[in-house]
Design goal:
mainly alpha; single chain; 2 helices
């Protein structure tokens, strides 16, 4: 998905939320100040994002090693 498609989709969503009384720009400002922590076994498997092929969804035990999962 390219940046232009994302911008168009956001503008459409922004209009729909505005119709419900939601200011999406204000919501984004609030969310920018909220720290998010991902607690998920897949969160440390950044290697899964290094190739274009689809993820297989399998479980891979990586051990208690520092750095990237091996």
């Amino acid at each position: 998905m390219n940046t232009s498609s994302i911008e168009i989709a956001y503008q459409l969503a922004k209009e729909r939320y505005a119709g419900l009384g939601v200011d999406t720009e204000q919501a984004m400002r609030v969310l920018a100040g909220v720290p998010v922590s991902l607690h998920c076994w897949q969160g440390d498997d950044v290697g899964g994002f290094e190739r274009r092929a689809a993820l297989d969804g399998g479980i891979m035990a990586t051990g208690n090693y520092p750095g990237k999962a091996r």
